[in-house]
């Protein structure tokens, strides 16, 4: 269901048959009569954010942030509020801590595409049903498996960091649906430009999870060949990959290919100049790129209300292309919306922005302590919307999976954890002089000089190898 959209949807060129995403982002594709198994056909068309059927973030029965406002202050909350610095605007005036209420807020003109409620009920969205109506129970189980194994891998990586095996880890906990839904919407010939947190997308692209850990262990600069899986190396310079993706997409268009490009970035990255430049260039050159923003509501300790005065998906409009907001904890909706956005790009209609509204349940990275700046209640409210739980509920309710399926998956996830531990612990120490390689394609006198200096420095240690280690 689309929870309230106050913006007009004007088709932008392509035929409705091709399902172009239009105007403010909803595809014009006609939804066929529902064939999806287990879907509730009664569409709560009139149920806006306050409607009873709106089981999303605005639903009254939801224990989500909307309920938080009126909840009595608990001792824990008082403590957390004391610890967390007050959120202030740039001008210094206090701002309400309302960012978590944003997704379905009619007052903000917000929309939220949702196909699976937090309780696991399949609801209909006439604009997006068609993109997932043909999905089979096996494919649904596959989405669950993807999310579960990604979560298991992520937990293993966090544990490895705590054991001193990794220097740092950026967990995706809570963002599995956004990543698996969008990742599974891609074709093999599409190209992905990730941030440093896209472990679920990497999984979908076939990058061995163990390879993701080399950089975090400090033994390599990436760990995979981007062209093997059309999955670029992790990018830590916030937002810069949106420009790389735009340039790549412009090249795809010039080649006359019908593949698409997807650039992942965060809510905080949306404030970067690079992202604004990428939006401008991609719109002007009609580049086939999908901008997939995982709005996990925090950029380290900065809440989203310090990044924007409007829902992020609405930013696209000012640049001249459509934007949509999807429930980022709903894997089915993320799959449908990303398919629509990719189709839009492939049809030559230019870029599209998808804002996946989700929540970072863990710390920003293992170097971060979120208890210093956010209240426990916020996380607890989002735990109730866990992306895995809602798909599990749906699979069980529809009889698409039984306990033996979940049991086998548990065994598989343990095996994955074990393999990842073994691979990481046996990663070879890097050649210390390798850092100087590949700086320039044909070498450079200055790099040669720096290499010689570093070699002499290494040799000055008492336990230095007799000659030429790492050469
Ligand atoms: C250009 C740049 N500025 C600052 C940083 C430091 N930094 C690392 S992560 C981060 C926050 C990013 O937040 P967001 O884009 O919301 O992504 P998230 O980590 O929440 O997924 C910042 C400021 C950086 N890596 N690059
Ligand atoms: Mg963020």
From TrEMBL:
Basic residues bias (residue ranges): 75-85
Pfam families named in the record: E1_dh
Organism: Streptomyces tsukubensis
InterPro entries: Alpha-ketoacid_DH_E1_comp, DH_E1, PdhA/BkdA, THDP-binding
Region feature (Disordered): 1-108
Protein name, as recorded: Pyruvate dehydrogenase (Acetyl-transferring) E1 component subunit alpha
Superkingdom of the source species: Bacteria
Cofactor(s) required for function per UniProt: thiamine diphosphate
Biased composition regions of type Low complexity, renumbered to the chain: 19-74
Sorted UniProt keywords: Oxidoreductase, Pyruvate, Thiamine pyrophosphate
UniProt-recorded Gene Ontology molecular function terms: magnesium ion binding; oxidoreductase activity, acting on the aldehyde or oxo group of donors, disulfide as acceptor
